[in-house]
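Morning, I've got a small favour to ask if you have a moment. It would help a lot if you went through both lines with me. Thanks so much in advance, here it is.

***
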Amino acid sequence: MYVIVVGCGRVGAQLATMLADEGHDVVVIDRRPDSFKRLGSGFNGLTLVGNGFDQEALKRAGIDKADAFAAVTDLDNANIMAGQVAKYVFKVPRVVSRVYYPDREHTYHRLGLETVCGTTMVARFIHDKIVGRYFVPHFSLGEDGAEIVEFPASKTIIGRKASEVELLGEFRLVSILRDKRVLIPTPDTKIEEEDTIIGVVKSAAVEKIRESYDLKFD
């Protein structure tokens, strides 16, 4: 993929490095030349000094051929502006904007933008650790979100088929961790003792899943 990353702070530098190491073509844009030092000498992508929402700068970065665009500066407004330009002016297929303030997420979703809020993700992860849930943070899409959940097989589902565990429109079983192996279940795959279940559940159905599967953690 050809990916443009706007912002070379700690998050942007790590994201750009990860993508480049995976073999993607990466261009990093930042207003501060010194910020590119975070990329290290082994970074094999390109860097460009400029504003991530400036159309001329984006053209120099090759946005016309970009497959994905990530705006991850430390300014919400800059990220949203850059995301809108990438999505609506240059029609980049995949655009993600980082936001710091959770109360702004719904507004940005209504603008049709996909966002990642580190504040929400970290708070949710810590919350779930405290109350004993096994939720893996997931990027919610739109206001009607979903969660990736992970939980040990309970007595109520051991011996049942994967198709019998799923709830239509609310929960889909994605994989099973068994004896350090990852299984992609078929509808007839039976749940065994000591299995760990990984699935996707609608956010509104999380408590229903816990009650249905008798998930009572210590």
Notes: The longest strand covers residues 171-178.
